[in-house]
Each structure stands twice: as C-alpha cells, then as structure tokens.
C-alpha cells in the first residue's frame, strides 16, 4: 500500500515547489520541511490518495496579499500559512534541545511560530520520513479553487504535538471587499481539516490604492453656472476608457431616467441647469472588471434644485373607492408629509384634520385610514414648514354639501365640538359660522349625530375614539331664515298699518303715489324711436324696455319691429322714413348698444375711414378725422343697425336731432367712437339719468318719482337674466 501511495504521488508531482502551478503561484516551507506544489487546479472534493506518516495540522493563518504582474497591475488575494505538527502516537526518540535558525519567512522562528528539531552532533535518526499530502481549498461567493501540496519532514527526534514548521502558499485571488473561505485537508488517519473565513480588504487598504487598477478611480468636480452645470472628470489616465453615469437616486431604485457617457481620459460634460434636481447623482468608473465607482450627489442642498423639484411634482386625489386615496409623483423622493384638511370655502383656510398627518412613502397610492370622501376635503403636502402642494375634491360628484359643518367627537357625545377657523369650538359656544347666539344649534346637532342624520367622515379603529361627522347645516339655517323673514314681514305690516291709521299725511302721500302710477306717467306726450341690433339679447331688452317706457306714457317705435313696413320695404327705406319723422317732430332717438350693435358701429367706422380723403386726414398731424354728412359707407341693406347708422352718424356730426345712447353694461364695456357725440347711459345702473334724458330739459329732477326708476331697472335686469 505504501508503494502504491508513493506511485500516485509521483504521478501527480512534476517537480519541486511550483510544480504545475500557475507562474504566479508560490509555495515556501520553513527549514526542516520539503514541500512540492503538485497541482493548482485540482477538482475540489477529490479523495486524497494514501495515508500520511504522522503529519498533523496545527494552525491556519490567512493574510491579505497582492499578486502583481506589473507595479500598477496587481490583484488582491489571500496568503495561506499552515503550521504542521506530529500526530499523537507517532514513535519518538530522545528529545534534543531546540536550535533556532533564521529562515527569512516571518513567523518561522520560535517555538510558537514554527521551527524544527534536528539531531545533535550529526547523529542519524532511525525514524522514517514524515510525509503528507495536503489539499488547500479557497471558496468565494461565485468561484472556488483547490490546490494539492506534498510535504515531507526530515527524520529527527521529535515529540508528538510539537511544531514541525510552516508551509506558506501564495495565493487565493478574490475580489476587493469579498469574503473567502479557506479549508485545508490532510490524508492522515484522522482525516484532519482546518477552516477559516477571511475578508479581502477594499480600496481603503493603503497597499492596494496605488497597485490595484480597481482602486484607481478618477475624481468628480462640479462647476455650477446660470444656464448649465459642468461636470469634470479629473485624475483619469489618458488612453483609458471611463464611464460617467447620471441618475436620480431614489429609495425605490435608480430608475430609468439616468444616462451614461463613455470617454477616454479626462473629460468635461455639460448638463442643462433645468435638469439639476436634488437627487441627481454622478458616478464614474474605469472600463475594467469589477471596478470601483466614485459617486457624487452634489445638489442635495441646492435651494434652486429643490424649487425645480417642487414645480415638477404632482399630487393626484383618487375617488374610485369609498376612502380618500392620493398619489404623489416626483422625480425624487420628497421629505414631506401628507395632511388632509377641511376647506368649506374655495378661497378660505384649510383646517388640518387631527390624527391623520402621515409621511410620504414612495410614489404609489396612499390612503388615510378610512377617511370617507366629501367635497370639502383637501390634501396638502407640507415640507419645511410650508404648504407645497394642495388638491381638493370640491368639483367631484360626491355625497355631501359645501356648507356642511364638521364636528369632532372624542369619547362620547358630550365632547362634540365644531371645527372652524383653526380651532374646535364647543357646541355650547358655537354661533353657526359667526351669526346668531352661542349654543343656538347645539340641541339639533346632538340629536342628528345620535339619529344618524350626520355622515361619519372618519373613525380610526383601535384608537382613542376620535370621530369626525359632517352635518347638514343648511337645513337649520334655512329654517331659521324663514322664521326671521316671516317675523320681519309681520313687523313691517304692523308698522304700515299703524302709519295708515294714525298719519293722515302718509295716507295722502300713498294716494298721490298711486295716482301717479295709475293715471298719467311722467313721460306722457313724448315719443321715441328705439333702434337695436337683431340678436336675442338685444331683442329681449328692447321688448322689456319698450313695455316699461310705454307704461310711463312714452310712445315707442322699435326698429326692427316695424311690422308690415319692414317686411314690405326692407329695413333701409323704413328706417330712413322713421328717422326723418323723428328729426322733424323732435322725437328722441334711442340707440341700444348690444355686442352686435357695437360690431356694426365699428364696421361702419372702419368703412368711413376708407372713404376718399379719410386716409389723408388720419395721416395728418391734426385732430382725428370725424365722418361728415357725405361720408356714408356702403352697408348691407339687411343689417338693421348698420342701416340706422347711415342716418344717425351724419346727423350727429351735424348736431341735428335728439339722440340718447343706452349701453347694456353687462355686455358692452364702452361706447364706440362713432356714437360718442350723443349722451350715453349704462343700463340698468344709470336708469335714473336715462329716464331724465328721455323726459327732456323741461322736466325738473325733483318731480321725478324714484319708484319708476326702480321698476324700469328691475324689468331690464329680468330681461338680461333670462
């Protein structure tokens, strides 16, 4: 068996230390030991042939080292140092004193770090050689490697369990910062094994910083400007390729919004200032295997970058369920809090709901623990002590009304209070949004909460019992307003009756007023021609104004509206006939300005400028050209108001006739230039002046009854509101 084992070892062995190992693998032994590197790529798990003669494993040490092909082209590895001893039970002879000999290998000298036992005065030993076969195994996360080593000890008198010496193998390669497990097996009778884990240093190891290519990473410098940011890659070796990556650093991943740029040697990269956000980070690394990356996030405290981020952030409220849910989307993580609040008025303050404030979590939908939907609910995003974003449910089709009252209940019904104006007012002091007496609605609100008439907005289970209720305040206010109006009307009726019975002068004034309304109107005997455009708004107002003026005694002819005359002759001859009659009899001509009438006046004014000689007048430095009686543009015969202007404007320029312009103030902001020579009134607000103009200079202002003004103005408002 011994011969068979020796034969297998000889077949494996090729030479002395180094054997078939890789050119960079080395094996060294302390004095008194002979070791051979048999194979550097043994199949891990191979059964070791033969049995050793008393070789034992005493200690295993792993130390970081570098394997270099050039001074700046090294790879990290672990050096294996194994201390060997004799197995217990191995035959011994006389113990000789220890004679230390320098070996040049650190840690070999001394009884604890290795050495040898040698015969004295050259006495020959009768002991056979101590021989063993070792298997060194190095396992990393993604790789493994096994090495076979033969060790022989010179014959000498020894004691069992005493050190024979050290075997040093250099080395097992592993990536920087990785962990390697090294195991040593022997083919002794006891099948011994030693195992140890060791982490390879990273680039903070001073020895590796200048020798390992992965640690030779360039530096990043950022130079901000008003329109762009320049990124400088410094310290890069010329001729080597590097990759610069820009990405958004987020808690849920770096996403797909980044970009990568590859260049050789030092480089500059320009980035538009609009793309600079607080989470923008930069990475650079050399194009080699397992490179170390230099990372820089320089904009995390840039105030302009934060303002840009908030401008690109969006808050969306979802109503596809019974509870309030929202989503906050932004290119970066936002250090903010979502705060639900109650806003009864669109432009009013939004009061935060107690116990519902929560920090933002990622970019997905977030709910508020069962908060029911209501039109008055909003969500605010708070960051840095101020509101950054606000979204409300006001325009959604949701149950509830904008004038609902929000009640807060803690524990029992006795603790109800109304949330308004940034505080919670007890119902005993509540005055229904500032009007009425304190506690006026307390009983009704408590009754509705108990009866289920108020809708529960929020109730957090397993909490302190805080609940929110939305109560329909409008029904209480409506009922109380009706009672108030009835009381006011009853009081007014009683007062009027008292005046009628006790005051003869008041009774006489009422009789005279009734007589004025029933018999003669203040405009009786006067006539007017009302000219308006053909459009719905103007026609409604013309009908209402004609009816109101006729009730005051004014004879009004409306154009269009001339009946068979317009139908038979067309608007232009009929209007000319009516206009000549009004000028001859001294009647008032009322020009009603609506949007279509203003457009016709502007077209007429533009056509008047195109009359020969008008352009020369406009270009002259003198006053603006006013159309003369002969400067009448050509208009379409079916445009009623334009046809009326062909009669009106020349007469206005010549100072003939009595004209009044009535402007619908809700539709027409100003009087066109062509009609500014006539007095103009904005209806219905200037109805008093308009009626006095129709009455003429002979009617004194003090004799004009104001109820007429109110009645005509109210009729005109109803016509405009239809």
Q: How would you briefly describe this protein structure?
A:
This protein has 722 residues and is α+β, with helices and mostly antiparallel strands. Helix 7 (536-551) runs antiparallel to helix 14 (706-721) and helix 9 (571-585) packs parallel to helix 12.
- Per CATH, the class of the largest domain reads Mainly Beta
Strand order of the main beta sheet, please?
A: 2-6-5-8-9
Query: Structural class per helix/strand content?
Result: alpha+beta
Count of individual domains: 4
Coarse shape: elongated
Integer average pLDDT: 76
The CATH topology name of the largest domain reads Immunoglobulin-like
Name the beta content range. 25-35%
Which CATH architecture of the largest domain is right?
Sandwich
Rg on CA atoms, Å: 53 Å
The DSSP helix count reads: 14
Unreliable parts: 1-22, 92-126, 505-513, 515-519, 562-569, 611-637
State the end-to-end CA separation.
121 Å
For the sheet with most strands, the description reads:
5 strands, antiparallel
The proportion of residues forming helix, as a percent range, comes to 10-25%
- Total beta strands: 34
From the structure above, extract its key features.
single chain, 722 residues, alpha+beta, Immunoglobulin-like, 4 domains, 5-stranded antiparallel beta sheet, 34 strands
Tell me about this structure.
By secondary structure, this protein is α+β, with helices and mostly antiparallel strands. The chain has four domains: 2-208, Immunoglobulin-like, CATH 2.60.40; 217-304, Immunoglobulin-like (Sandwich), CATH 2.60.40.2150; 315-474, no CATH class; 523-721, Rossmann fold. Helices cover 25% and strands 31% of the residues. It contains 14 helices and 34 strands. Helix 10 packs across helix 12. The model is unreliable at 1-22, 92-126, 505-513, 515-519, 562-569 and 611-637 (pLDDT under 50).
């Amino acid at each position: 068996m011994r011969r068979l084992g020796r034969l297998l070892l000889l077949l494996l062995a090729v030479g002395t230390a180094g054997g078939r190992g890789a050119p960079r693998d080395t094996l060294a032994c302390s004095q008194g030991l002979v070791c051979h590197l048999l194979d550097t790529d043994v199949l891990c798990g191979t059964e070791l042939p033969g049995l050793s003669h008393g070789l034992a494993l005493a200690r295993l040490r792993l130390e970081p080292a570098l394997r270099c092909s050039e001074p700046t082209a090294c790879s990290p590895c672990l050096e294996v140092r194994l201390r060997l001893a004799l197995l217990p039970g191995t035959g011994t002879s006389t113990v000789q004193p220890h004679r230390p000999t320098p070996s040049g290998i650190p840690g070999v000298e001394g009884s604890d770090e290795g050495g040898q036992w040698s015969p004295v005065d050259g006495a020959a030993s009768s002991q056979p050689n101590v021989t063993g076969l070792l298997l060194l195994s190095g396992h990393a996360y993604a790789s493994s490697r096994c090495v076979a080593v033969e060790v022989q000890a010179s014959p000498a008198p020894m004691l069992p369990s005493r050190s024979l010496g050290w075997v040093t193998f250099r080395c097992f390669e592993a990536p920087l910062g990785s962990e390697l497990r090294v195991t040593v097996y022997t083919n002794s009778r006891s099948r011994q094994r030693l195992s140890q884990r060791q982490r390879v240093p990273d680039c903070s190891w001073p020895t590796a910083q200048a020798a390992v290519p992965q640690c030779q990473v360039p530096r990043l410098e950022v130079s901000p400007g008003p329109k762009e940011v320049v990124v400088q890659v410094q310290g890069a070796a010329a001729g080597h390729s590097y990759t610069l990556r820009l990405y958004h650093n987020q808690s849920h991943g770096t996403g797909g919004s980044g970009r990568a740029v590859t260049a050789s040697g030092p480089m500059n990269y320009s980035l538009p200032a609009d793309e600079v956000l607080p989470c923008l980070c930069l990475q650079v690394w050399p194009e080699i295997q397992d490179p170390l990356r230099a990372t820089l996030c320089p904009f995390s405290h840039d105030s302009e970058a934060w303002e840009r981020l908030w401008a690109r952030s969006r808050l969306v409220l979802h109503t596809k369920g019974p509870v309030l849910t929202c989503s906050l989307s932004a290119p970066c993580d936002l250090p903010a809090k979502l705060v639900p609040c109650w806003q009864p008025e669109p432009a009013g303050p939004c009061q935060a709901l107690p116990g519902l404030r929560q920090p933002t979590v990622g970019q997905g939908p977030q709910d508020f623990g069962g908060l029911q939907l209501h039109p008055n609910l909003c969500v605010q995003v708070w960051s840095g002590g101020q509101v950054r974003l606000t979204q409300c449910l006001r325009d959604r089709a949701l149950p509830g009304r904008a004038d609902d009252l929000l009640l807060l209940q803690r524990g029992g019904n006795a603790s109800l209070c109304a949330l308004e104006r940034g505080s919670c007012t007890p119902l005993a002091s509540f005055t229904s949004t500032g009007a009425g007496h304190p506690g006026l609605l307390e009983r009704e609100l408590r009754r509705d909460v108990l009866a289920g008439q108020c809708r529960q907005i929020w109730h957090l289970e397993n909490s302190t019992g805080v609940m929110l209720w939305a109560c329909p305040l409008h029904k209480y206010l409506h009922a109380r307003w009706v009672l108030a109006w009835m009381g006011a009307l009853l009081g007014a009726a009683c007062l009027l009756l008292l005046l009628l019975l006790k005051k003869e002068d008041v009774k006489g004034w009422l009789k005279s007023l009734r007589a004025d309304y029933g018999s003669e109107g203040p405009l009786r005997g006067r006539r007017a021609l009302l000219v308006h455009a053909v459009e719905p708004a103007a026609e409604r107002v013309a009908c209402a104004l004609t009816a109101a003026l006729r009730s005051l005694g004014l004879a009004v002819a409306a154009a269009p509206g001339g009946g068979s005359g317009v139908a038979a002759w067309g608007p232009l001859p009929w209007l000319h006939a009516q206009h000549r009659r009004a000028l001859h009899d001294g009647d008032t001509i009322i020009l009603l300005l609506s949007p279509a009438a203003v457009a016709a006046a502007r077209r007429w004014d533009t056509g008047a400028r195109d009359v020969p000689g008008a352009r020369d007048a406009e270009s002259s430095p003198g006053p603006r050209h006013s159309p003369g009686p002969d400067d009448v543009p050509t208009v379409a015969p079916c445009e009623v108001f334009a046809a009326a202007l062909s009669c009106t404007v020349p007469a206005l320029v010549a100072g003939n006739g009595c004209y009044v312009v009535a402007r619908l103030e809700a539709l027409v902001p100003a009087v066109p230039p062509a009609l500014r020579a006539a007095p103009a009134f904005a209806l219905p607000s200037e109805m008093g002046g308009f009626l006095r103009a129709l009455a003429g200079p002979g009617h004194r202002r003090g004799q004009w009854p104001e109820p007429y003004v109110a009645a005509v103005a109210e009729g005109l408002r109803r016509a405009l509101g239809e």
